[in-house]
Amino acid sequence: MTELPPLCFTRLLGQEKGKRILLRSLAAGRIPHALLFRGPDGVGKALFARGLAAVLNCRDQAAGAACGRCPSCRKLAAMNHPDFLVVRPEKGALKIEQIRRLSRELSYPPYESKRRVVVLEDIQTMRREAANSLLKTLEEPPADNLLVLTADASREILPTLVSRCQVVPFVPLSLVDTVTLLQQHGVDAVAAPLLARLSEGSPGRALLFHRQEMVGLWREVVTLLVGAGEDPDREVLPLLHMAERMAALQEALPSLLGLLKIWLRDLLCVDLAPDSGGELPIRPTKSWSSGQLFARLQAIALAEEQLARNCNRALVAEVLLFALQGGIESPRRFSIR
Ligand SMILES: [Zn+2]
Fold it and tell me: What's the per-residue H, E or C state across 141-203?
């Protein structure tokens, strides 16, 4: 089911500005020694780095595009090209030993290509000494190498590092592109738009949610809530059981809450503008008023706050589910510490 992403960066979805910058440098024959791909997680920075390496070393390159068939392109597509290295954080950070090892590696010429391309992922995770070590490498860049640093846009990086790179900005993908990518990865037509919205244009994050089976659990929670019958006492056990399963999501629990918020907002839109069209979300059997929907959104906001303060997840999920089911107007009557 899963389609492989195209190799050449020019054929990847989105990042039009980044593509223009890179194509201009390629056309002028002025690829710098270091690029900094800066933008949110999961929007394709690593794929673009590989796609750029493909163009630089393609044996049959035409107008800034890689052929995808020559030996170099094939090795890159299979991720076993000797002149394409990816250095990733180990245990959450890029370490100084990794940078030193890399500097030694760079002092040798590339094995078989015009240019070796090295991707250093998430440089915002470096401590100062590792950053200083990298700075030395950037100050005296060995020939025939291109360093592609990637970094999360929201985190601080040493300004001296930034100033030695050409910065290529990366942005979230459009909803349409994200949905297309998710479907290429085998996500179904109902889940793809939900995950695309939840991920805010980050296909990488959306696929992570998909692997966590977030939409399946969301559907179960929603079904439980909308099916709430006349006798609330009978619904207690399923709610408690569901709260346990939600808590088992651990760090991913806020993402499930994100999906619930999207669902409630959709219901609110339908309630405020019934003729607005669009796909109807799963609706409660006894329809909820705008006020009740707002109260539920508020209950989620409160749960998010509590999770951010490291409150007990199971307890937060329990209180939230009761509030969502009953539409309790003031969730603040519960106090969780
Ligand atoms: Zn090629």
Answer: CCCCEEEEEEECCCCCCCHHHHHCCEEEECCCCCHHHHHHHHHHCCCCCCHHHHHHHHHCCCH
